[in-house]
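Lab manual, section 2.4: Encoding a predicted structure.

Procedure: take the sequence of the chain (165 residues), apply the prediction step described in section 2.3, and record the output as C-alpha cells. A sample record is shown.
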Amino acid sequence: MGRWLRIIALFFVCCSTAALAEDSPATPPDPARVAAARDLLEVTGVTKQMDGMVEAMSRGFAKGANADNSEAGKKLSAQFDSSMKKLLEYKDQMITDFANLYAETFTAEEMKTVADFYRSGPGAKFIAKTPELMKKGAEIGMKYSAKIADEIKAGQTPPIPTDQK
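Recorded output:
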C-alpha cells in the first residue's frame, strides 16, 4: 500500500507544488541533499512507478467513464489519456522538483539512512511486496465502497447535514 500511496502523493504533491513554486524563494537546494533525494527516489522505485501510476489511473478512469459502452465515455477516456501522456512529458522535471522538496525537508544523512533501509533485506522485501499489498488493499477498499453503495441504494445512509445541501 505504501508504494501506491507514495506514487499518488508524488502525483498530487507535484501538481499542487507547481502553483506554490512561484511564491517559493529561489534559493538552490544543497546539491548533496538533492543527490541523496534522487537516490532515495530511485531505490524506492518512484521514478519507475510514475508510468505505472498513469497507466493504472487511465484504466480506472476508462472504467469509471464507461468507455467500453458509450461514445461519451470513450471521448472522456481519450482526453484523460492525452492529459496523462502530457503529464509524463514533465516526469523528469517533476522528479527534480520532488527531489528538491525532499532536499528541503530532510538532511542528506536522513535520506541515505532511509535509502539504505530500502536496500536491506526487509526494505527490499517491503518494496517487492508493496504492489501485491496495494492490490489487496484496493480490494478491501472496494469491498467497503460497495457496502456503502448498497446502503445508499437501500436508503440506509445517514441524512446529509443541512449545511452540506
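Check your result against the sample. The mean pLDDT is 80.
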